[in-house]
Amino acid sequence: MHSTNLLLEEPIRMASILEPSKTSFFPAMTKIVGTLGPKSRSVDTISACLKAGMSVARFDFSWGDAAYHQETLENLKLAIKATKKLCAVMLDTVGPELQVVNKSETPISLEENGTVVLTPHRGQEASSSLLPINFSGLAKAVTPGATIFVGQYLFTGSETTSVWLEVSEVKGDDVVCIIKNTATLAGSLFTLHCSQIHIDLPTLSDEDKDVIRKWGVPNKIDFLSLSYTRHAEDVRQAREFLSKLGDLSQTQIFAKIENVEGLNHFDEILAEADGIILSRGNLGIDLPPEKVVYLN
């Protein structure tokens, strides 16, 4: 029996250790990562995922609080017990992700050639003319002509639930934009992506560190997915942070590359990280869609 085999269907007899391994036996070298979300968090669904081959469960902290993800993790434990199939745990950080905040969750209609203002004053209500965002430095990061994307990932030009914006002017902390396509934004949070623009925020935020301490440590996570990794130093800083958390000193770090800045430093990031995740959705905003296929 190979020592790296995750699942033991029956107890090992000590004598069997001395027996030659079967030549036909090959351990699974490929891991299948599955994200556990609203439609894949019940015990039955997770069990089906495990039986289908899922060996790493990803918990995305871009949405949902620690209590929500803990419930899902407890269901994962029950599913593991029921199926006798082991599964590793991956915590995916939020990182320097920019978001539009829609507290009322009222659908927001945006009309092509109209204007909308992006403001860091989150106390204001989102509307078709004003979108509050979670970053106070946007006005300093963009210039007229810059493109901003709001909504779902990988825009192809035909969506009506995502919108392209072009910066028209900057007024103090506010950014005035021209709407490039008609769309309706629905929900409480929308990702905001500034194409090929450096965002001066730490890769591992204070909020991420808090989640790792309070959720990652007690649950002894196996992998950390480091969102928006842009430089090798991002990985080094994350590893230094994990090394101080006892049980997580051996946690592996997967650098998640989501923009051109990360691609430009790919080789140095690869040398420092335990693995690489290419987020083709976000990269499809920074790159022409036809270029994304080369990242497979």
TrEMBL record:
Residues 30-294 form the Pyruvate kinase barrel domain. It is an enzyme of class 2 (transferase). The keyword ATP-binding applies. It catalyses: pyruvate + ATP = phosphoenolpyruvate + ADP + H(+). Pathway: Carbohydrate degradation; glycolysis; pyruvate from D-glyceraldehyde 3-phosphate: step 5/5. Gene3D superfamilies: Phosphoenolpyruvate-binding domains (3.20.20.60), PK beta-barrel domain-like (2.40.33.10). It holds the Pfam family PK. Its cofactor is K(+). Keywords: ATP-binding, Glycolysis, Kinase, Magnesium, Metal-binding, Nucleotide-binding, Photosynthesis, Pyruvate, Transferase. Belongs to the pyruvate kinase family. This is Pyruvate kinase. It comes from Panicum miliaceum (Proso millet).
